[in-house]
Amino acid sequence: MKLQPEMTSEALTRLKRARGQLNAVIEMMENGEDCRAALTQLAAVSKAIDRAGFKIIASGMRHCGAARDRGEEPEMTEEELEKLFLALA
User: Fold this and answer.
1) Per the domain annotation, does 1 fall within a domain?
2) Helix (H, G, I), strand (E, B) or coil at 4
3) CB of 45 closer than 8 Å to CB of 22
């Protein structure tokens, strides 16, 4: 299944935010700043990436469900979607 912009806009927004947070963590480390602040930002990056992945999986599930409702063969099986979901867990 190809990533469609209308399916991934929320995930993309989260990933761009995570990229900014990760850049801030790298800068904190390079400047020898407080480890608590860096780790707090790193935790936020991790959570944003996880949520982006879940958004993509949820979009895929909706896309495949809509295909089934139209009587079409979905691009991915339920097993494939489940495997991708579990890879994020």
Assistant:
1) no
2) coil
3) yes
